[in-house]
Amino acid sequence: MLNLYDKLPIITIITPSLNRAKFIEEAIKSVLNQDYPKVEHIIMDGGSTDGTLEVCKKYPHLKVISEPDDGLYYAINKGLMIAKGEIIGVLNTDDYYDPNIFGLIAKTFVKNPNIDAVSGGSIVFETDTQGNKKKLLEHECIYPHNLLRRATIEESSFNAWFFRKRLFDDLG
After folding, report:
1. What CATH number does domain 4-115+159-166 carry, 3.30.565.10, 1.10.287.70, 3.40.50.2300, 3.90.550.10?
2. DSSP class per residue in the chain
């Protein structure tokens, strides 16, 4: 008999990387600081030489693939081919997730088996030389009624999107 844990979908986060030692640890920690127990985090590294891989070695839960590639989208597509999760997120190395959002994401997908994507809100910021973050702009969640406008006229923060893997499997 399956217990509740077995019924939870795996969330796979794909992080493309190349020479991002300065940023990647915050992204990794943001995935670790979630309220959700079934997470696969894949780092698709293009052959970093700056210490990125040494940072990744501190986190044995990571699945790290490091080999030359043809850029960001190639790396994401390679990550999709090995992803085990039913839900996929892409997190760039200089971005991070707020704590405790994965449970809400999983709950949304479980309650709505016909939806293929969920978008959260996002904040675009810059960091000054002292490490202080300054908010530049903020994007609210995207809802069905404003999807077309947000996807074509306004900005849509890709790192705030989560997709069913079946969408990529079906569409390529």
Report:
1. 3.90.550.10
2. ---HHHHSPPEEEEEEESS-TTTHHHHHHHHHT-S-S-EEEEEEES---SSHHHHHHT-TT-EEEE---S-HHHHHHHHHHH---SEEEE--TT--PPTT-HHHHHHHHHH-TT--EEE--EEEEEE-TTS-EEEEEEEPPP-GGGHHHHHHTS---GGGEEEEHHHHHHH-
